[in-house]
Amino acid sequence: MPELRKDPVLGRWIIIAKERGKRPTDFIISEPASKGGFCPLCPGNEKTTPPEVLGYGGPGRLPNTPGWTLRVVPNKYPALVIEGDVNKEGEGLYDKMNGIGAHEVIIETPNHEEFFTQLPFERMQDVFLAFRDRLVDLSRDERFKYVMLFKNHGRAAGASLEHSHSQLVALPILPRMIVSELAGSLSYYKYKERCVYCDIIRQESKEQSRLVCENEHFIVITPWAPRSPFEMWLLPKQHASSYITQSHDQFQALTRIFGEAMARLEACIPNVPYNFVLHGAPLRSDPLRHYHWHFEIMPKLTNIAGFEWGSGFYINPTPPEDAARYLREVSLT
Amino acid sequence: MKKILLVDDEESIHLLYREELEEAGYEVHSALSGDEALNTLDILKPDLVILDINMPGLNGIDTLRQMKEKMPEMPVILSSAYQEFKQDLASWASDDYIVKSSDLTELLESVHRHLA
Q1: Which residues of chain B neighbour A36 with C-beta distances below 8 Å?
Q2: Rounded to 5 degrees, what are φ and ψ at B97?
Q3: Strand A146-153 vs strand A165-171: parallel, antiparallel, or unpaired?
Q4: Are B94 and B64 in contact (CB under 8 A)?
Q5: Contact between residue A95 and residue A148 where contact means Cβ atoms under 8 Å apart
Q6: Cβ atoms within 10 A of the Cβ of A87, count?
Q7: Is residue A33 predicted with pLDDT exceeding 70?
Q8: Cα–Cα distance list, B107 to A105, A177, A277, B78 (Å)
């Protein structure tokens, strides 16, 4: 029988269609064909991007020249603009403000053919450090309340260019998802005086049925009420509401566990399109006892259609316990 | 006289743009598809391309990538009725992105700027 499950933070209901019971081999995804042609993100084409706001590379390298291993550049055709004031105002009962924001692209590798999951350890860690560096820099701009950091991999997951990149959008408002997470976790904290995410970590460590992998600082689980088959959450074991406060050791552990989780996912479902999103506290907020930063990794394996739009429910054909077992047991050779 | 290659599957756009561009002193050549434009490129060697995105067959973004592979220094202005293609990072290979309008002021300014 199908099962309805409730997300303990958001109160969102999910239908686990157990009888459909989809296994990794039910999700066959063909090798994405490279479109070829000119790539604006490749080395040598730096002048086709706006000037970089961050670059990692060899000593003596000048900005906007080749020799980089990672670059962060503003979006050439941004949806939101960096200059100006927010100017909140109303139009009758409707609210509006100027489209102020920052939209940046993190070019994770100079190699057009190299995927994020293929990056060697040091360079994958550079991606996580670049996320931190940009968050720190953008948090100085008081117009911005939140920075949404995300990656789209594969056309089905919204990646428009195969050259590996992630993106961030600094916003003058809190996204509704984060508002809901903050409210849900605060409500839980008021009732139990504990962080709901810390409780999730404790329970998942004990039960093990949804555990994918862990190390000294992080745990990766398939959540109780996942929206997508093989959805994973990556959480720090030590309570922290902000991503930027991690130690050097934690960044190393993050890189190891993220690399392992993604390797497991790709071993289960080769060429899987996915999104990952960093969820953290609003910019410049004091440490929050009720909120816990984390990554959510969403393989793009199902379609969002009328029922999902209308109800807010998701139908997931793979129970998270099954997904976790496949992910744990897959051979990483 | 500077040569402009105008690539769009809509004949009415050719009529409108050609008149304005010729009046501004440019020599205008037409292609009705991405494939036709790519085939014309080597012979015509335009000074600038105005390229529609939403076309049957090879779309404007894929045409752009192939054009820039062949002629990276040749300015290409994307001209589309739609804003959303700006979210496609491959559009960054272009030198400008103009949303189509019956008022060609913005397009002409961009053409002048890139051919100055």
Answers
A1: 65-66, 69
A2: -135, 115
A3: antiparallel
A4: yes
A5: no
A6: 10
A7: no
A8: 27, 39, 37, 10
A37–B66 C-beta distance less than 8 A: yes
Q: What is the CA radius of gyration of chain B?
A: 13
Please tell me what DSSP assigns to residue A100: B
Estimate to the nearest angstrom the gap between the alpha carbon of A133 and the chain centroid.
16
pLDDT band at A317 (very low <50, low <70, confident <90, very high): very high
Chain B residues with CB inside 8 Å of A166's CB?
none
Question: What values do phi and psi take at A6, rounded to 5?
Answer: -110, 130
CB pair distance less than 8 Å for A165 and B62: no
- Rg of chain A on CA atoms, in Å: 20
pTM for this prediction = 0.93
A11-20, A107-116, A133-142, A219-228: least confident range: A11-20
Asked if residue A13 lies in contact with residue A6, where contact means CB atoms within 8 angstroms, the answer is yes
d(CA A2, CA A315): 10
Locus of tokens 């397009």: B107
Give the 3-state DSSP-derived string for A194-252, with helices as H, strands as E and coil as C: CCHHHHHHHHHHHHCCCEEEECCCEEEECCCCCCCCCCEEEEECCCCCCHHHCCHHHHH
Question: Using CA atoms, how far apart are residues A181 and A196, in angstroms rounded to an integer?
Answer: 10
Taking the C-alpha atoms of residue A137 and residue A86, their distance in angstroms, rounded to an integer, is 19
Region A10-24: mean pLDDT is 86
Instruction: Mark yes or no for CB contact A38/B87 under 8 Å.
Output: no
| Mean pLDDT, residues B9-24 | 94
Q: Is the Cβ–Cβ distance between A123 and A69 less than 8 Å?
A: yes
Which positions in chain B touch A40 (Cβ < 8 Å)? 89-90, 92-93
